[in-house]
Amino acid sequence: MSPKPLIIGHRGASAIAPENTLAAFHRALDSRADGIEFDVRLTRDEVPVVIHDDNLKRTGCRPDKVAELSYGELRRIDVGSWFNQTRGSRTVDFSGERIPSLDEVLELFESNNAILYLEMKSDPIQREQLARICCNHLKQSPVKDRVVVECFDLMGVAVVKAIDPSIKTAALFEPALMTAPLVTSGRRLVEQALTVGAEEIALHHRLASKSVVATAKSAGLKVVVWTVDRSHWIQRAQSMEVSALITNDPGMMVQQRQALLSMQNRF
Questions:
Q1: Is the peptide bond before 5 cis (omega within 30 degrees of 0)?
Q2: What is the pTM of this model?
Q3: 6-42+113-265 CATH, one of 3.20.20.190, 3.40.190.170, 3.30.70.1400, 1.10.287.130
């Protein structure tokens, strides 16, 4: 049985490697993270690729939109050099890292037991297309049972469930979506997650109050909290029975979790 809470690398080990690259995913695995979270978009030729932003300005240092480029064109773009430049001198040179396809990431995880949180970066226009393509790729992968598909666009979660009810899903929520007090909003979030058939609810850490987490758990939802890089969240997650923490620095959080568990086992 895995120690709790599970530690999930946000876009891989993005504190020490360029986000959403195979390098970041390898480092998350090397740090003994329980899994990774990553983002999926479609290229012009409908290949699902792993990138957060809808453009290459930040990670590719060029203005192109992901949806306007083919997979072949995207593969030629360096998405590692920006990390070297913005994070200062490093012992590892990430120049030449490429945007991976969804299939490459799924294949990487065939040799381990890690969990994958796949965030669909969809909008109402592309919702069904992206959901259908992701489901098709998961159907052909042996790691399908370890994947949780999540989305801020909750109708995207509903579409995934309609296509393949066996795929696990999570409803994503952030503070910007809230217009009512947290207690009232918490009940509403749980209702929305259940309505679209989600098994999990993924909360921004500012939404993860004891009452909201308790409401979600009483409704049968697993609770995931993102994005936390401070070790006090480990004990807090244990006390609230949060299932998993998504973090930029999974190595540090895994070490801190082990230190806490060792201390707890002494008493």
A1: yes
A2: 0.96
A3: 3.20.20.190
